[in-house]
Amino acid sequence: MVYINGVEVFRENMPTGPVGHTTFASTAIGVNETTPVTYIVPTSAFVNGVNTIAVEMHQVNLTSSDLGFDFELLGSTDPTFNSSSANLALPSCSQVLFAGLYWGASQGTDGTNVSWITNENKVKLKIPGAAVYVDVTATQTDYHNNTLVPGLPHTGYHSFADITSLVNATNANGTYILANVASPLGISNSCGGWTIVIAYADPGTVVRNLTVFDGNVVMNGGDPAVHIPITGFLTPPSGPVSCELGAVVYDGDRVSTDEYSFKQNSNPLVGTYTSLTPNATANLNDMWNSTIS
Q1: How far apart are CA 177 and CA 199, in angstroms?
Q2: 58: Cα within 13 Å, side-chain hemisphere
Q3: For position 6, what pLDDT does the model report?
Q4: From the CB of residue 269, how many other CB atoms can be counted at a distance below 10 Å?
Q5: How deeply is 46 buried, as exposed, middle or buried, from its count of CB atoms within 10 A (0-12, 13-18, 19+)?
Q6: Residue 27 has what pLDDT?
Q7: In this model, does residue 217 exceed pLDDT 90?
Q8: Fewest CB within a 10 Å sphere: which of 116, 148, 207, 256?
Q9: How far apart, in whole angstroms, are the C-alpha atoms of residue 3 and residue 20?
Q10: Which residues contact 18 (CB under 8 A, 6 or more apart)?
Q11: Are residues 3 and 53 in contact, defined by beta-carbon separation less than 8 angstroms?
Q12: What phi and psi values does residue 4 have, to the nearest 5 degrees?
């Protein structure tokens, strides 16, 4: 556990709640005991002048015979502590009508650990051709933990911001970079990510009705299927109707079994589902496998 000026800023492999000198570590780390643990300390934790850093170590039991400690503090003027990029390639003559930025993160080791969720509603975005980042603040953030969902062994969040005004509506293509997504650094069984959902007009294609449905749901392994009714969109009064569905999912383990299915009637007890799982990047039993398709 690390403290700066008497305030806890980070704990690793420790239970949540108050900690005393008799509190044991959560688990024995074994062969990982020489693996460094990295944590980004925000500048808000420091004051001008002298700062005091304190570290406390806890054994897993009274008979543990070994203990090691090493510590390094590095300063940086880089305004970002993590970042990743994605490329956008719309057809020529397209015009962006809506751009929504979604980001989030989660961890699945402790349903009460929310200490890592700080500044989760703020990120930095660099649009194509820009030299600097712009600050983006979420207009909505949803959370999950075992207080909101009893028994859930996960904690996390999902944020949204409308960035339509930041995107070049008639020349939106290029590389987008997102930075400073609050994430569970140093915690196993964790995930984090982001996406930009774009609706655009293309005079070279047929007329379409585009609808973006916002929502947030958490599924734990072994949970029953989640049914998501989709209403409020328009279709032609006659003739064949086709549609494309997209979804953003976090923590898509490739070893887990899951499925993505669709049917016309929104009543989950009426009609037959069609599995949308088999595609170029997913097999029959694993739709959400950490790929983009």
Answers
A1: 19
A2: 18
A3: 95
A4: 6
A5: middle
A6: 86
A7: no
A8: 207
A9: 14
A10: none
A11: yes
A12: -125, 120
Q: What tokens does 220 get?
A: 């734990």
* In the block, residue with structure tokens 């997504």: 181
Q: What is the model's pLDDT at position 206? A: 83
For 11-24, the pLDDT digits (tens) are: 888 888 899 999 99
Residue 255: pLDDT over 80:
no
179 phi and psi angles, rounded to 5 deg:
-130, 160
Q: What is the gyration radius of the CA atoms in the chain, in angstroms?
A: 23
- The pLDDT tens digits of the residues spanning 116-147 come to 899 999 999 999 999 999 999 999 999 999 99
CA distance linking residue 136 with residue 157, whole number of Å: 16
Structure-token match 């989760």, residue found: 120
Sequence ranges of the domains in the chain: 1-77, 79-209, 219-293
What's the whole-number mean pLDDT along residues 221-247? 82
Quote the tokens at residue 264.
């016309």
pLDDT at 52 exceeding the cut of 90: yes
Which pLDDT does position 3 carry in this prediction? Answer: 95
CB contact set of 73 (below 8 Å; sequence gap of 6+): 53
Write down the pLDDT at residue 293: 65
Share of the chain above pLDDT 70, in %: 98
- Phi, psi for residue 99 in degrees, rounded to 5: -135, 115
**CA atoms of 171 and 128, how far apart (whole Å):** 9
CA–CA dist 191, 219 (Å, integer): 14
Which two structure tokens, joined as six digits, stand for 175?
């590389």
**Tokens for 287?**
């739709």
Query: Can you tell me the distance from the alpha carbon of 105 to that of 190, in angstroms, rounded to the nearest whole number?
Result: 8
